[in-house]
């Protein structure tokens, strides 16, 4: 045990509490036939919660954590603190990058040894905790070797290093019983076409993803392989810009039936979309998997990774999650970090607790909207003409036949209201 969270008691569901408690998130509350904990599948992000020092593009470290440093003893202290927080919050899952949990070695081999030792240490912690691994991933972006990309790097040695790192992280995820493995291209893009072979880089990225899928089947990993779209930041153009871009990429490399999406709210906004748009599109394409729940500051043009606090936005997101059938191996990972001035241990607990409450409120509103059925009924009514024999025949016809029919029947269609304001008013009844 550590004393980092001393004097903080495990959080309970208590709507009347004036202190640290869940006022809306009751893990045992049954919604649509299933416990809320099993619907939402909350996960804590190891990197933002325990590895991030509080820096930003204009300032350095503000957090002073007793486990900061590059030794195995400090890495184990970090793990001890992490599991104490998991227990205080009673969360079912957590997520990691390899670099979050192990010290950086002077060589690939040393980093691998450190990583494997920490995987064993975390596995021991998991034996006495309810908290399990939602997913693991490789940090292929922080070290300066990745400044020109990982899979897309012009140097084949860096591609090889990256592929070996992915292999080790997949092994670790499998060993720890992780339910997914995530790949996201933090540096997979370019700054200028003047020094970039775009076609070659796309082929390299596609091949590494193919290798990951091949290795999944080789080791018998039963979880999902997830790709997380990320636009613009930090490079001028990212190859995994949004769900639509990634789907085209998957189709190009024959992976659309093998890979699903891990969709982040903040990344959706940076791509010029809403979160619910990206979720709905992934569902329509059959590649919805999991989510990173956070928010951006809408006055800032970069990824601020703040805890969610907007119930209507969250409700619309979970509405699409529920319409997609809910999570299977995926879940709600809080890819969110404290503000640089939120220095105290209690801030870390409060940030997660508040976010869990916001998600619970939004989720219950989404479930109520879906069970009410008004929105779906109005949507179905709007497209009802396509369900008639005439409508279904149109898509099997040809231009000449359709043109002749329009003239013969003297078709003169008039527009119908989309009723957007009415639909928005209906949503507002629930949120």
TrEMBL record:
Q: State whether keyword Disulfide bond applies.
A: no
Keyword terms of this UniProt record: Carbohydrate metabolism, Cytoplasm, Isomerase, Magnesium, Metal-binding, Xylose metabolism
Residue numbers binding Mg(2+) 2: 264, 267, 303, 305
Specify the species: Celeribacter halophilus
Binding note for cofactor:
Binds 2 magnesium ions per subunit.
Q: Which reaction does it catalyse?
A: alpha-D-xylose = alpha-D-xylulofuranose
**E.C. designation(s):** 5.3.1.5
Q: Which HAMAP family match?
A: Xylose_isom_A
The UniProt entry lists the main location of this chain as cytoplasm
The active site of this protein is located at 97, 100
| Gene name per UniProt | xylA
Upper lineage ranks? Bacteria, Pseudomonadati, Pseudomonadota, Alphaproteobacteria, Rhodobacterales
Q: Which residues form a coiled coil?
A: none
Record note on quaternary structure: Homotetramer.
Which GO-annotated molecular functions does the record name? magnesium ion binding; xylose isomerase activity
Broadest EC class assigned to this enzyme: isomerase
Residues reported to bind Mg(2+) 1 = 228, 264, 292, 335
Gene Ontology CC entries for this record: cytoplasm
Please list the GO biological process terms of this entry: D-xylose metabolic process
Entry cofactors: Mg(2+)
Under which name does UniProt file this protein?
A: Xylose isomerase
Mind telling me which InterPro entries this protein's record contains?
A: Xyl_isomerase-like_sf (IPR036237), Xylose_isom_bac (IPR013452), Xylose_isomerase (IPR001998)
